[in-house]
Specification:
The protein contains 5 helices and no strands. By secondary structure, the chain is an all-alpha fold.
Amino acid sequence: MAYLYVLAVHIIFVVSWMAGLFYSVRLFIYHTEANDRPELEKQILQREYEKITKRLWNIITIPAMVLTITAGITMIIINPGLLSMPWLHVKLFFVGLLITYHFLCQRIMNQLKNGIFKLSSFQLRLWNELATIILVAIVFTVVLKTAIDWLYGLAGLVIFASVIMLAVKLYKNYRNKKAL
């Protein structure tokens, strides 16, 4: 019974962590696009985006990540047999990618704070979709659990990623046409 409570907490904080990651990168996009505004407006917007991003990151995103990981470790402590299941190893690989993504987002946030804009708003839109792809991979791994389903899942993930990247590209073209 304790396992189910911890699982519920784990799911709740995964949702919170993902929301923080998604919205943070959206703020990075706005922060970057503020460079195209007149100087005074640019300064005001970038200061505001920096403040909002910092609050979101420190109040929601980081605590949600820590609580997600803590609940995950607690589930393994309660049920150590999980470690013998191959699907968990695949899930942990994707979780490792998500944690890496998290810290790369933190680096982007710090760069923006220091006026370093290495990625365009289009590149940040693609970057934002990477978290979606990792999340989909984690969910399918946990739900499907079998190797043959992973092959179908991997094929589906590649198709899903391709569709997302195409959608981002089409949206960019739409925005460019609308701006003319």
